Amino acid sequence: MEANNKNTKTFLQISVHLTGYDEMDLLGTGMLESYYDVVIHENNLHLVSEFLTTSEKILGDLPNINDKIRQQLIDDVKFNSLTSNIIMMWYMGTWNGNVVSPQSYIQGLVWKAADTHPPGAKQPGYGSWENPPITIHPPVAVKPAAKAETLTTV
Amino acid sequence: MAFEKSVKGERQTLLPDDFLADLPVVDETLSIEDDFDKKLSELKKQLQIALELEHSTIPPYLCALYSIKPGTNLMPVEIIKSVVLEEMLHMIMVANLINAVGGKPRIGAKEQGEDRDFVPNYPAHLPGNVDPSLTINLECFSKKSIQTFWRIEHPSSDRNLPTEFSASQYGSIGEFYEALLKNIITLEAAAKAKGRSIFHKNPDKQVKPEHYYGAGGKLFSVENLEDAIKVIKEIVGQGEGTLGSIFSTPYREGDPKYLIFGPDVEEYAHYFRFKEVFYERFYAVDDSAHRDSPNKGLPTGERFNVDWDAVYKMKPNPTLADYKKNMPGVYPKAREFSLTYSALLNNINDACNGNPDVLSKGIPLMYQLKYQAIELMNIPIGNGLMAGPTFEYIQ
Amino acid sequence: MENTEYDVIIVGSGIAGCVMAKTLTQAGKKVLLLEAGLSAGINLDKNGNFYNYVDYLNTYYKANAKVPNSPYPNIKDAPSPNVLDIQATPSVDKGYYVQEGELPFASDFLRGPGGTTLHWLGSTPRMLPNDFQMKTNYNVAVDWPITYNELVPYYEMAELEIGVAGDASVQPNANEYTKGYEFPMKKIPQSYLDQKFMALVDKVNKGEHPVQIDKKKVTIGLTSTPQGRNAVPNEKYPYIDVMWNAEQQKLVMTKHMYWSGKDRAFKELDKKEKYQYLPVGAVWDPNTGQRCEGNASCVPICPVQAKYNALKSLAKADESKLTIKTQSVASKVLHNGEKTQITGVVYKTYAFGDDAIEYKEVIATAKIYVLAANAIENAKILLASEAANSSKQVGCNLMDHLCLLTWGLLPEKGYPFRGPGSTTNISSFRDTDTRKDHSAWICPVDNWGWGWPKFSPGSDVQDAVKEKKFGKELRNHLSDVLPRQLLLHYECEQLPNKDNRVSIKDEYRDALGNHRPVIKYNVSDYEIKAFAAAKAINDQLFKAAGIKDFTKYGEKDENGKFKNPDIVTPPRSKEIYNFWGAGHIVGTHRMGKDADKSVVDKNLCTWDHNNLYLVGCGNMPTLGTSNPTLTMLALTFKAAEAILKKI
């Protein structure tokens, strides 16, 4: 599971900038290794290797990283579909529309982005839907009010 | 000792009658008023320790549970989950007991003037001097951790009741509760002799069945001695089952007292459930619980699959301080976890101190705790080990 | 021919079949239950049941399109329709249905243990009193042979059996409920999204630009939806079980007697024990699913079984009186020409495995036969048997709720994709004078974003990536848009029409040689006019409430085909509307008071055969605006009572 291999590390780091989630968020999904495997197995190795080399160079220029990604990975037809597929994989757990594994579905970043959870997994508990998601009001380290807050929107 | 046996959803109580046999009825030394008050205050302290004891096993059980990779080890997950849910139930019932005798249960924050934290500093001993030879860790699911768990729930062979209660050691959780119960009975008898009762009528502070659902059998509220005995029997029954008699009394063939397993029995003691996980099979209907039986008290029933390797190998006993210093990348996630955990303890504390309705608001926190723990366990921190949940109460 | 003599043979282990089996066996009758689906699905052993359910769940996680039937096995010997197979008509070779009508019939069902309750949403509103007398009240369709009031006792049984959570006092026509009536559980909390939406609607209702019809102001009313999912038990609910009372010759709801599975008998409740309704948990563990846990996946699968499914009822049957045969597909009932009795049921068994080709044809006999195989399957069996069809109504009057979907973005985040599928509905258009002209509708507020029409959130990610969004920009875009998604669906009542029908043709058969259903289907102006009326209201509401409309009908895919082929245009109009199937398959063997115009009488016994009963939604003469399961179950209790009276 460890990102000890250089290519996996590059894949992880470029994924951070492609997805907008930090390294710990991506590692926390537990999907890094299997996603890297999908990239290797579902693509021309030569292309993947070029993609990683280009990514490494881009990662060396952090101040301009978004421009570089746009020019070299997104706008460049050579890498465009690979890059899009990688983003889709992190967000949806799919490669070309196919679910990679039960876990990849559950770990899709889209659910985080939408402040919810994948339907059928990571359930938030009875009545949770009555209130805004817990993720937007993370618990604060003070004693809660004596009475439960009730919603007063209606 | 006490068996809550539920057969196809209908609960029966299978209680050996000797439960209170060797307990004294009235303690003559309690004739002096001062001594009574002192003993009552000691009892409240001891009950607080019981609360801490019930809580102390939950983080280790949760670590083992959450370290099991999703989709694997279905039966161990179900078994450990059922045990944890019962421990949570026990915690609430001990809080009910504390409220019933006019105490104030304290969950989470440290009370002023107390030197003890509510949350143990893992690796830790069980609170209340219970089996000091035992160290409990926050660690992943393994044969070793399961063995530790059954030691926690172990019915001790030593039936000598401690005479002096706050300073002594207890061979097992069961003995701790036996001493506790003895004190409750003694104090109540002394109070009764004066036309009083140690039990306050404060139903508003009691957490009742309608506030709690989903597992661990029945939640009892406590208003009198009978309820208190019921609660302790429930706790001891679920935890250890036979409380020592499987070791201390001789085996007799076919003794129905020890034929306690089978598909119709929906729950039996944690001790046996952990044995099932360790040996990767269920108890059979005709298995005996007694160690001198032909099956040596071990399960011989249907096998189930345990994959001891399908586990996140979390580094044992993670701490916020360690992450802050050595793994600053992990620290924010660990801190988020501790905040959720602390919020959950605060929620339970509120619920057990006059606002039982808020308990349901804690459920999303409980789930969030799980997802954050698993997220941490997916983060590699070197040497083939993973980060893990920091069960620390933070302000 | 089998030797065993059963009192009753039931075909199908969906909700009607399971509740029938439970009720009859508890009354001491010997029952054979035939189920077409796999044995694994009916495993009442705790561990086996759990493992099987985990399989369903993993299949669901792995499914690329998480449609209603996606978690469940589709078997060539007993195929189920799949919504992914719906295409423009004629369509003879894709999926289970043979579609020969103007429009494709777009609703699915599940052939397997537990039936479609495995993936039903769980909404359980009752039909309204006027729904039973459409001819009398509005001069359309037909009247039922029974009134709402006659069905009330059975509604109450159905609400106990399913375990309904809700607030009876706020339901439309609450005054028509038994005085002081309560549901078994308190209402499921209405979602945060509902609350946001209700606040907007409230403002529109009270504001300067309220919604108007023909220049008259209309108030849009919302109600919390009663649902068959576990919630906080209602301490005021008094009933324990439904029991056959042999002296009174009727089914009664007990307050002191309970069914003891261990003793296989009804027993008196301990006097000391105060009864409180206990939610029924998962089949494998009563502690699981004591409350809805907010998995937000009721359709296709509730992972904790907090939502009712038929196997919960089956688990309460008296096992000693019940024989279950799975992988046993009923194909025909036997009768003797002019004779009024059914003499047997023919079923084919199949083995399941990679190369299993063992088929066997078996005949079983009983005193009474009950078809509970779903509206389409019941019709198929009757047509193949040339039974019960002297009225020529078998297979006719196929109906569904026609769902007109509308979607937009809320001005503020409502955080959808959480909670049960729907917790609130617009109820104020369920029974108005306009029913003379066009369909009435109920309009549930959906809690799951634009998932139904747009496959959100996947399509939103895809579109954003196509627009070259990535990184923080992508994340922020999704965080802004997805939590503001709102979806409504106007479920319009379809009237019975004898040309909307299920038939069989010998050239269309499945692997076992049983017929595939041949469907002719269309919608009429009565329904299309409702689409226009509903959309007009919706447009005003969205505008006044500041909801940005994204509704689009008639979208085409990359091959130029309509994404949703159910597309219609009102008379003298250029507007187009899409509608979606509701999964409410109703009306193929309707009940009535005249033998020449209906298939079953008011006790659900076929007019032609006095020992053949039909249960399921096929009996309903009209549909109303309610999800039909509750009403269908009420009728099932009525049928069970009639059967027990007879034997």
Automatic annotation (TrEMBL), chain A:
The organism sits in which domain of life?
Bacteria
Record-given protein name: Gluconate 2-dehydrogenase subunit 3 family protein
From TrEMBL, chain B:
Query: What Gene3D superfamilies does the annotation carry?
Result: 1.20.1260.10
Domain Iminophenyl-pyruvate dimer synthase intervals: 47-278
Pfam families xrefs: Ferritin-like
Q: What name appears for this protein in its UniProt entry?
A: Ferritin-like protein
From TrEMBL, chain C:
Q: Does the keyword Oxidoreductase apply?
A: yes
Q: Does the keyword Magnesium apply?
A: no
Q: What are the names of the required cofactors?
A: FAD
In what residue span(s) does the Glucose-methanol-choline oxidoreductase C-terminal domain sit?
A: 496-635
Q: Name one Pfam family in it.
A: GMC_oxred_C
* Ranges where the Glucose-methanol-choline oxidoreductase N-terminal domain occurs: 289-403
Q: Where is the signal peptide?
A: none
Q: Give the record's keywords alphabetically.
A: FAD, Flavoprotein, Oxidoreductase
Belongs to which family? Belongs to the GMC oxidoreductase family.
Protein name according to UniProt: GMC family oxidoreductase
**Source organism (scientific name):** Chitinophaga qingshengii
Q: What is the lineage of its organism?
A: Bacteria, Pseudomonadati, Bacteroidota, Chitinophagia, Chitinophagales
